[in-house]
Specification:
Blueprint: E1 2-4, E2 12-14, E3 24-28, E4 34-39, E5 50-55, E6 61-65
Length: 79
């Protein structure tokens, strides 16, 4: 997972992940903090059975177990 620094559109930070991941969805909480959820499954059977959550301000990660090698994750806006 990578994020661009708000100070410079050219600056980018990378959050190293333990295993390959397939897709990412980004969202913002009510306080304005941004997060990414990254699906752990992939088409090469080298992923893991879960989702990695990444806080984009600190790049801190948290892993959640999800059976079945999830390959897709989406974000949607409530209306």
């Amino acid at each position: 997972v990578s994020r661009r620094s708000p100070a410079s559109a050219a600056a980018e930070c990378v959050a190293p992940l333990d295993a390959p991941h397939e897709t990412v969805a980004v969202w913002q909480n009510a306080d304005g903090a941004e997060f990414a959820a990254v699906a752990g499954g992939n088409t090469r059977n080298e992923g893991w059975e879960g989702i990695t959550l990444v806080a984009l301000d600190s790049l801190e990660t948290r892993r959640l177990a999800v059976a079945g090698y999830p390959q897709a994750i989406v974000a949607y806006a409530r209306s």
